[in-house]
Amino acid sequence: MIYGLGLLFLFLLVYGPQLWVRFVMWRHSKDLDGMPGTGGELANHLVKTLNLEGVTVKEGPPGANYYSPDEKVVCLDARLYNGKSLTAVAVAAHEIGHAIQFTREEPISKLRKKYMGTALVIKKVGAVLLMISPIIFALLKIPHVLLANVAIGVLVLIASALMYLAVLPEEYDASFNKALPILESGYVPEKHMPAVRSVLKAAALTYFAAALADSIRLWMLLRYLR
Question: PANTHER family recorded for this chain (predicted)?
């Protein structure tokens, strides 16, 4: 009983943040009749209004919601680009928040360049190590080799999550110092602002929650080895 509760707690601790992010995004994804424009229209409007020189907005594939500082592109997936939901406008404003950070060369925009690239590399290395662990064990039949590889995978995944944690100030700045004041200035009715704040919080936690959830694969591997 205690063992089962411990596993449930571990699962919620690791996977809970991503489940919460997905739930919040889904909960407020229904189009509203009174919304004056789509996420894409809002993003394009803000680019012009805020004079974000060189920044463009494009429609992307499912799940592709980001700002690329190298290309100066705000990308929103089709559901958000064409949607008139609170999720659509909040995520659009969040990505515009990143565009503001980089266009104005704010110090906080340096966090992504400093940590994000490293986090992505670490994440990929960790995923590869965890996938090849059973193969190494099958070929060498040496348990210690497998355990060492798993241990390295654990450290890599933890390092990746910590790297994403390091860029949280940039994400929160994009949501609450940039996007929230914009949306509060008349773009979204006051009655919807509590929901918008939830979506902005979810947007800020998206990368970290995803990195943390990746470690669930480690738990599944360990269960398999047992």
Answer: MEMBRANE PROTEASE YUGP-RELATED
